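Page 47, continued from p. 46.
Same chain as before, 166 aa.
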Amino acid sequence: MSDTDNGDAYQFEFVSLDGEKLPLAAWRGRPVLVVNTASFCGYTPQYRDLEALWRRYGAQGLVVLGVPSNDFGEQEPGSAADIKKFCETNYEVDFPLTEKNRVVGANAHPFYRWAAGIVGEAGAPRWNFHKYLIGPDGQLAGAWPTQVRPSDAAITHEIESALVKP
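Result:
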């Protein structure tokens, strides 16, 4: 299957900052908020909101997945160890983080090519902290540009709608 076929997000896998496999299929049935991140961006404080979402909704099933990328303004120049230390020290991040990935263009991670194939190039990341919500069925349930904070009601409403009901 090519990465622009509809399919679902569960066909994709990332690698963590620690080198471990992060298959999206491991979170089948749970909403996953995928966000391309950067350590030296004006939007970097959104890490606080992402961590708050993780703490607020994680026990109900939400997964927040940070995808460090150096694609925009070279604002993620560091190594995996640098990124991990920065996130833990400055924002107490403990949600999963992937290794650094391309998120735009022909060399983008296959997940990002798949998402752009669904939402169109206008819905592809234009800067750091672009957000995609994968629904429990593995389909794209929402996409928000950089300027929309993770705590925005539009995002939290979609997350709450996608959470596993008791």
